[in-house]
Every structure is written in structure tokens, then in C-alpha cells.
Amino acid sequence: MTKKIILDLDTGIDDALAIAYAVASKEVELIGITGTYGNVLMADGLRNALKLLDLFGQDQVPVFPGLAHASDKSDFEVLEVSALIHGEDGIGNVDLADSARQPSQESAVDFILSACDLYGEDLIIVATGPMTNLDAALAQDEATLKKAGKIVIMGGALTVCGNVTPYTEANINQDPAAADRLFRSDVHVTMVGLDVTLRTLLTYEDTAKWRALGTEAGRVLADIVDYYIKAYEITSPHLKGCALHDPLAVAVAVQEDLVDYLPLNMKVETEGASRGRTIGDNERLNDPDPSMSVAIQVDTDRFLEEFMTRISSMLAQEA
């Protein structure tokens, strides 16, 4: 039985790989992409999502505009490091024609809640950007959001350092207050953070295999990801590749046993030097039914094999 999935994205390069993984997975029916800000401006992320859906032969999947800035701010500017890692356009400055389609008129929050109401336990939401859209859905109708079968986020770091500050991971850093409200709510969340994503790396050898397929989609995705790997050579040369942050979250959504979990009630620190740190909530440590599951170990070899097999098969077919 296929799983109905919404991807909540700030469509940069690892989000592009999350889209690719979802499209390439037979267990997944991608019912929509909701946009947010982060790697790029929200509007640019929507444009990127539409381009990539066209590239992967998925032009029937709708894209919905979400919140354009953090819940406690009035605007948003892309960080210089984000432009370095993802390119000025968010997808490696690779020439890819704009889609003929436009985003939906319906808002991301309304779409998320209507899908929760319609599909209930059959719906999975995978959020790989700031938690702002989920926070807004939580504020608007927590009972309906709780109908979703699963919410998986790419964000946070529990057992390792952050990638923005020593404490803070990038997605949580964009809107710590929104993430804190989500973490402290009764909505169950699976956190796929730097603890596991930094152990899943893609190299030039892998992208060369996509380019060798001889398809347009293979060439374009290889070019996009080569930009990402080159950025990692500047920011994280010790890794010897680029981390598959967002596609791992999608993989965990459909294959729970790829990772080992720690059940733990969590919070996000919202002030001071450690602002954005994701950490256990001391006040709820003894609650019998923790609201979060934190991924702390990953079957790296199995995931990388699944990742390359699925996406390579999809890219081999001309859209």
C-alpha cells in the first residue's frame, strides 16, 4: 500500500534530492509540496519545486505557498552561507527552465490540514525546512494536525554539534520558537537530525553514475549535486562528500527501521548563546509516553544502496 506524503520544503539541493527520493519510491504517493523559506526565499523555493517536478515527470503534483518568514519576524533574507552551499538560485545555479505551471492559490497550511482531515493515518508529512508551516498548522487546528499518521522532520542535533552554531542546526535555527512549540505539543514527531544525516554522504563517483545514464534528468541532477559536493569541500572538507539530510528524512518516513530511535520529550532553547539547541525537556523526562522519537543511529550502507538504486532507476527513464 502506498503512503500519501506531503513534502514541506525550502527547496535547495538536498530538498531536490528529497523530491527525487519520494518520486523514485514505489511506496510513496506524493500528493503535494508545501513551500517555506530557508535555503532560498519561499517564492524561489516554489519555483524550484515546480522545475524539479517537471524534470522528474511529476507535473501533476501541486505546490502550495507557505509562510515566507519566521513566526517571530516580519521578513527573511537568505544567509550568505546558504547561497554558498545551494547556489544563488538554490539548485546549484544549473540552467533549468521555469515550469509552465504556477503554485496553487490554496495556502500550505490549509492544504496540510485538509490532507490530515481527508487521509488521517494514511498521511505522512515530511518537513525538511523551518518548522514555521507546521507551527502555523498546529496553532490553527492542533486536533486536525494530530490526525496525520506520521510527521517526520529533518532538523536538530542531539548527540552532535550544530552546523550553524556549536548548538544549532540550520532548519531549527531559522525559527526556534516554532520548533519549540511543535516539540512541546502532543503531536508525535520523528526527528531526523545531524546525528544521522552526517553519516550519509554522496560523492562525485555517485553523481558520475547519474550522468552516465545519458538522460536529461540524470545530467541535470548530477550537475546540481556536484555543486553541492563542491560547496561541502569548502564548508566541511572532512566529510569527503555531501550529506543527504533531506532524502534520509523521506527514507525514514517510508522505512522506519533504517534508523534507531531514542524516545524523548524534547524542547528547543529560544534565547541566549544556545538558541536553537534541540535537547531533552527536563520537565517531561519521566512522562510515560514521549511525544518524540529521535534518530540516533542509521544503517548507512543500506540507505545509500536504496538511495542510489531508487534514484538511478528513476533518472534512467526519460520524463
What's the quick description here?
The protein is an alpha/beta fold and 319 residues long. It has helices at 13-24, 42-55, 80-86, 108-119, 132-145, 170-174, 176-184, 194-197, 204-211, 216-235, 245-254, 300-315; strands at 3-9, 28-35, 63-64, 123-127, 150-154, 189-192, 201-202, 242-243, 259-263, 266-268, 278-280, 292-298.
Could you please describe the fold and organization of this structure?
With 319 residues, the chain is α/β, with parallel strands linked by helices. The protein is 41% helix and 17% strand. The protein has helices at residues 13-24, 42-55, 80-86, 108-119, 132-145, 170-174, 176-184, 194-197, 204-211, 216-235, 245-254, 300-315; strands spanning 3-9, 28-35, 63-64, 123-127, 150-154, 189-192, 201-202, 242-243, 259-263, 266-268, 278-280, 292-298. The chain has an 8-stranded mixed β-sheet, with helices on both faces. Helix 1 crosses helix 10, helix 1 packs parallel to helix 11 (245-254) and helix 9 (204-211) packs antiparallel against helix 10 (216-235). The mean pLDDT is 97.
Neighbour order of strands in the largest sheet: 3-2-1-4-5-6-12-9
Radius of gyration: 18 Å
Mean pLDDT: 97
Helical proportion, percent range: 40-55%
Give me the number of helical elements.
Answer: 12
Shape from CA axes?
Answer: globular
Secondary-structure element string: EHEHEHHEHEHHEHEHHEHEEEEH
Strand content: 15-25%
Q: Which regions are unreliable across 5 or more consecutive residues at pLDDT < 50?
A: none
- Largest sheet geometry: 8 strands, mixed
Structural class: alpha/beta
Report, as a whole number of angstroms, the end-to-end distance: 24 Å
Tally of strands: 12
